[in-house]
Amino acid sequence: MGLRPAADGPSVVACTTCRRADDGADHPRAGARLADALRAVRASDPSYAGVAVEGMPCLFACSEGCVVHLRAPGKVGYVMGRFEADEDAARAILNYARAHAASDWGQVPFREWPDGVKGHFIARVPPPGLVAE
Amino acid sequence: MGLRPAADGPSVVACTTCRRADDGADHPRAGARLADALRAVRASDPSYAGVAVEGMPCLFACSEGCVVHLRAPGKVGYVMGRFEADEDAARAILNYARAHAASDWGQVPFREWPDGVKGHFIARVPPPGLVAE
């Protein structure tokens, strides 16, 4: 175990090991399915090209799956969870990530929040060397 | 609102606006009291000098207060919560932060975890440009 290089621009890091209550033993975990849905939705629309999709095992929020971490250089990042592993969730996450990437410091005006992310925030984290005022 | 410069080395970023159920209206919020406890414990022992203590309003995990974010350059960071605003919690957080700062990539062996941080993890977040394997 350890770290490996990943995109250093705006990114959605999806937890690939998250389970949902309806996960069976015989198919990929919900987290892996959400990561696939994020990649498929991203590929369907060039306006998402500025947001990378990454997978990473376990974001330590197992009771809140499916979980993603949203980050961009110099901006406040977020941990969001309680997502279904489906296209609607992937689209809401990517729409929010696109607005986040375009924001000054990571704060997206509430009026721009996709409905699909409301109520899904677990935490926010400041970027290196900075804290929120 | 926005971002302001903070320590760019190993740090504990304490949410200063967290409330606990026993918070009254007439004294500082639990988050601010935990930040004060972290600063006091840090100042009491030079072995904590390598870990900065920062305050920041609202880490978006209000139901899990008191909440802190632990970070260090190039290492996986953590969001931890459900802490009391007292010296015991501050010492456990700083002992963990000191071990985190000394670790290769942010993973502290479980045998080194202070009892006071067990069960307090909310999420982990990879450092910029990297993800966990």
Polypeptide structure, described:
- 2 copies of one chain form a homodimer.
- By secondary structure, chain A is α+β, with helices and mostly antiparallel strands.
- Chain A has helices at residues 30-44, 87-102, and strands at residues 3-5, 11-15, 52-56, 68-71, 77-80, 121-125, 130-132.
- Chain A has a 5-stranded mixed beta sheet, with helices on one face.
- In chain A, helix 1 crosses helix 2 (87-102).
- The N and C termini of chain A lie far apart (35 Å).
- The mean pLDDT of chain A is 95.
- Chain A binds chain B through residues 1-8, 13, 54-61, 67, 69, 71, 73-74, 76-79, 104-105, 107, 121-133, and chain B through 1-8, 13, 54-61, 67, 69, 71, 73-74, 76-79, 104-105, 107, 121-133.
Described by the principal axes of the CA atoms, the overall outline of chain A is: globular
- Largest sheet geometry of chain A: 5 strands, mixed
* Largest sheet strand order of chain A: 3-2-4-5-6
Oligomerization state: homodimer
- Tell me what portion of residues of chain A adopts beta-strand conformation: 15-25%
H-E string of chain A? EEHEEEHEE
Question: How many angstroms does the end-to-end distance of chain A come to?
Answer: 35 Å
Unreliable stretches of chain A, pLDDT < 50, 5 or more residues? none
- Largest contact between protein chains? A-B, 42 and 42 residues
Give the radius of gyration of chain A: 14 Å
Provide a count of the helices of chain A: 2
Number of strands of chain A: 7
Q: What structural class is derived from the secondary structure elements of chain A?
A: alpha+beta
Mean pLDDT of chain A: 95
How much helix, percentage-wise, in residues of chain A? 10-25%
